[in-house]
Structure formats: structure tokens, C-alpha cells
Amino acid sequence: MRVFDVHIHIQPWEMLKPEVLSMLSDPSHANAKDILASADNVVRFLDREGVERVCCINYVSPDVMGFTRETNDWIADFTRDHRDRLLPVGSVNPLHEINVHDEIRRVLDLGIRMIKIHPPHQLFAPNAYHGELWQLAEIYRECEERGVPVMFHTGTSVFPRARNIFADPMPIDDVAIDFPRLPIILAHAGRPLYGETAFFLARRHHNVRLDISGIPPKALLRYVPRVADLADKVLWGTDWPSPGVVSPRKNIDDFLALGLSDEVTRKILWENAARLFP
Fold it and tell me: Strand 234-235 vs strand 4-9: parallel, antiparallel, or unpaired?
């Protein structure tokens, strides 16, 4: 099976706040720092793990995580020689930009393939453009025009200063209605508290998909019991190197062991993402 992982974290770790970095310490990731030191190392790692393409998640969260707007330029440079396999993901945080319209255009012109919105870490609701954060709509509008997917973190976060009042994915219902041509991905399928909401949104809206990163594959059918019913709209992701994700290969093996049909497995591991990111 070919594998396209739409959710691994290749970020400028030196930007992380100390209290965040301490939570990411995991004995199973002792070599992660070396792997993430260069794009060549990452590609060799993917070869060993049996992963063909990945989306390299980045987002602007100076208040919670420490990532500044410079993370967009960092990931664009990091992936420059391997864009066939390493798809750069960036972000614009309207709470930290005077001119969101110009910044989202600049970021996408870098070759960024997807925009990440992390409500609990960026401290705004996905539909905040209906209120004072009207510039948020500029991000969705530009991505919709260019056909660039927007990935939303859905579900809770345990990092210090994260605001889980923004964890519920239901406000994305507004986004899907107001921007019907915008490809939307609900990262983590709402886990652990909002799985039913995420599943409902994916069924209701033609432009909404789920990624199942951050869900232990052995527990997938507990979190998303009807995953096979939604097989055309489910994307594979691991969230590596988050704590508990030992390796992409192990997650793949655990997923294959679930016994889903070959058709469903192919769609989730490769076909759906390959169609979304041609």
C-alpha cells in the first residue's frame, strides 16, 4: 500500500516555549531531533518507514506554542528541494497581522500547500469572522480561490495556555456553508470529545474531510466506528513525533491489522490525499 501522511510535525522546534518542549519529551523519539535536522534526513526516514508523501504541519501560535510568522518562511525553505514528497503547511494568525489579505497571499506564494488553523492554540473560533475578527475571512477566501485546503485542529489540547473553549468543531459548520468551494480537513476527527460532531460535519458538507491523526489506530473503530462508511473522506495521518506515536510504520501496521477492506484501506492511506494534493 502507498502511504500519504497528511499530518506530521516538521517545525522550527527552537521556537517552542520551554514548558511546551518539556511536554514533548518522549524516550521513543530520542532520534527525532536528528531526523528533523534536515530535509534529506526526513526523506531517508520516510523511506525506512514506508511513507511516500507527507504534509509538514506548521502554524503561527506565539502565545501558546511560541511559533511566530517566520515559521512559514522556515518550512518553505526546509522543503524546497523535496516538494514532491514534503508538502509545506503554513499559517496566518489574524490576531498577529495588520494586513491579513497581503500576508495570506505572500504565504501561499511561497508554495505553501495547506493552511493550518489551530483554534485552541491560536485563540480564536473558526467562524470569528462573523464578529470582530473579520480579517479571518480573507484567509478562507484566498484559499478557496486557489483551491488550497485549510486544516482545522479539532478536539482538546493539554498544552499550557491552550484554550479548549475553541476545541469544538461545530463553528466550522459556518465556514463550510460560507465557503462551499474551500477544501476543509478536520484534524484528529474531533478526538477525544467531539468525534460525533466531526463525523456529522464530514457527512453534511461535501467539502469537509477528516484526518485521523492523533488517534491510536488500535482505537480507531472506537473513536470513528463508521470510518468505512466515510472512506472517501478520511485521510491518513499520524501526528508524529507527538508523544505516544512511536513511529509512522507502527501506526500503519496497527491500522492494517484492523482488517478493513483493501478498497477502504487504499482510499484512507493514499488515494484520498493524493486526489486532494495532486
Answer: unpaired
Q: Residue 175: which H helix or E strand, with range?
A: helix 172-178
Contact 55, 277 (CB under 8 A): yes
Architecture of the domain spanning 4-276: Alpha-Beta Barrel (3.20)
Rounded CA separation 122/124 (Å): 6
C-alpha cell at 191: 478526538
In 92-171, which ranges are continuous DSSP H helix?
A: 100-109, 119-122, 136-146
Sign of CA dihedral 127, 151, 153, 102: negative
Place of cell 534526513: 41
What is the pLDDT, as a whole number, of residue 22? 85
pLDDT in tens, 162-197: 999 999 999 999 999 999 999 999 999 999 999 999
Give the 3-state secondary structure of residue 167.
coil
Pairing status of strand 150-153 against strand 208-211: unpaired
- How would you class 12 by CB atoms within 10 Å of its CB: exposed for 0-12, middle for 13-18, buried for 19 or more? middle
C-alpha cell at 103: 500576508
Three-state DSSP class for 184?
A: strand
Cβ atoms < 10 Å from Cβ of 203? 14
Signed CA dihedral, 74, 122, 55, 250: sign only: positive
pTM tops 0.85: yes
